[in-house]
Each structure stands twice: as structure tokens, then as C-alpha cells.
Amino acid sequence: MLHVHAHPDDESSKGAASTARYVDEGVQVLVATCTGGERGSILNPKMDRPEVLENITEIRRKEMDAAREILGIRQEWLGWIDSGFPEGDPLPPLPEGCFAAQKVEDAAAPLVKLIREFRPQVVTTYDENGGYPHPDHVMCHTITVAAFEAAGDKDAYPELGEPWQPLKLYYHHTFHYERMKALHDGMVARGLESPYAERLQDWKPDPENERRITTRVECAQYFAVRDKALLAHATQIDPDGAWFAVPLEVHQEAWPTEDYELARSLVESELPEDDLFAGLR
Ligand SMILES: [Zn+2]
């Protein structure tokens, strides 16, 4: 299985518990990280020091090494430069040479090469909105869809190895309304303060988006591994922030799955699924 992610830390915040489950079952999992996270902010106040910011690329590589060990995966860098999250009105242009400013056929090339070498059956990435509107996440989606198709085409990128066609392509659906609401309700039911109260006030149920979810992978027993991998990205996650305000037991009871959308399949499987390898076993 190949997960394609935009930045170091995305592999630990999206699909990490199902990754840990599949690794435990003996599946070889490779994470391809499009960028080095060079333009990421420091999101943990305890790590917000000038010497950390100066060495952010090297530090994020070390964080990724630690997360990789925790998840038991292989990981490769695709070598693109983080585009940063554009802020302001009007939005500033993308920095020159960054990942999101590349031509799709160029940006997809290293991924096509990696798919042909690793030969995954299942590939995952974000949906067309990127999961959240970071230009690198949207670009990650675009190149993964392009590479999924091109890798098996003998006429595409003939210099990048023998064609290999992955069989299933999934999108992560991690931060969707139903899950947030279930976590919120789980907190309230226990008399705990929900970190999602404010967000849920102007976040309405989105049945159309929920309908996109085809596949729910039970992985509650691996949530602790997910938390550990995420904490390894110390510059990107505040251990005292909203993410960890919901206790593990509430996560396990309120929403024991990680959720995916089957976007493309070359095999037969019955929907809804509870396994990313349904139809391949
Ligand atoms: Zn990201």
C-alpha cells in the first residue's frame, strides 16, 4: 500500500491507525512525502524557538524518521519544496519553484517512478479539495490521480521503469462532520469540555460529503500508535492542544474507524467496505 502525502506529519494525522493495523497484518506500507515541509509554521508553542525555525527542514526530517519507526513503514521524499499556506487578502502568489507551482506532468514523474518500483495494489491520497485547502494538498491529490493512471501506461514516462497499474485508489475522509459531532457528543456525555463546540456551531451536517465515504476501517486498537506517531512531529502538534483534548477512550468508543472514499477501482468489491484490500485478498 502506498500513501501519498503533502508534508511530513500528514501521514500521522490522516490514516495512521489503519496504517498501523495493516503493518501489523503484514502489509508493506510506503509513504511518499511530496515536500519537506520547509514552509510549515511551528504549531507547538513549546517548540517555537528561533533555533528550531532556523533548522526546520532538518528537524522535520528527524521527526519524520521517528514517526516512520513508530508506524513501521518505509518512507520516501519526492523532493518538492513546500508551497506554504497562503494568507492575506488578496492572497499572495505561490513562491517561485514550490511544489504547487510545478507543471502536473513534472510533479507526477517521481511518483510514477516510485509506483513502478514499489508496485502497490492500493494507493491513498486526499480528495480534490485537499481535505483542507492547502495548495500542496490539492497538488498532492492532482499528481496522485495522474500518477495512478500513468504508472500503468507503457506510453507514459517510458524512461521511468516498467509499467505497474495499482488496483485501488482511495481518498482520506478524516475531519468530516459526523466524526467531529460523535467526538463532541462523546465528550459532552462524559461531562468533559469538548474542543469542537465552537467549530460545530457553524459547521452543519453535510450528508453529501458523508455519502462519499465507502470504506470504514476499524482500527481503534491502533489509535495509541497514531497518537505516538503524531507526537513525534513535535514542531507540528501541541500535546496540550485540541487534538489531544479528547481522551483515547472517547476516540475509541465514539469513532473507532478511519474513513475512506474508493475513488477508482479496477477490481470488484461490494460497497460499503471495511477493508482497503477488499476484492484483492
Ligand atoms: Zn499537510
From TrEMBL:
Comment on bound cofactor: Binds 1 zinc ion per subunit.
Gene Ontology terms describing biological process: mycothiol metabolic process; mycothiol-dependent detoxification
Record Pfam families: PIG-L
Entry GO MF terms: hydrolase activity, acting on carbon-nitrogen (but not peptide) bonds, in linear amides; zinc ion binding
Domain of life: Bacteria
Top EC class of this enzyme: hydrolase
InterPro entries: GlcNAc_PI_deacetylase-related (IPR003737), LmbE-like_dom_sf (IPR024078), Mca (IPR017811)
Keyword Hydrolase included in the entry's annotation: yes
EC number per UniProt: 3.5.1.115
Keyword vocabulary terms for this entry: Hydrolase, Metal-binding, Zinc
Leader sequence residues: none
Catalysed reactions, semicolon-separated: mycothiol S-conjugate + H2O = an N-acetyl-L-cysteine-S-conjugate + 1D-myo-inositol 2-amino-2-deoxy-alpha-D-glucopyranoside
Residue positions binding Zn(2+): 7, 10, 137
Cofactor(s) demanded: Zn(2+)
Subunit relationships: Monomer.
The family this protein is said to belong to: Belongs to the MshB deacetylase family. Mca subfamily.
Function: A mycothiol (MSH, N-acetylcysteinyl-glucosaminyl-inositol) S-conjugate amidase, it recycles conjugated MSH to the N-acetyl cysteine conjugate (AcCys S-conjugate, a mercapturic acid) and the MSH precursor. Involved in MSH-dependent detoxification of a number of alkylating agents and antibiotics.
Name this protein carries in UniProt: Mycothiol S-conjugate amidase
Lineage summary: Bacteria, Bacillati, Actinomycetota, Actinomycetes, Propionibacteriales
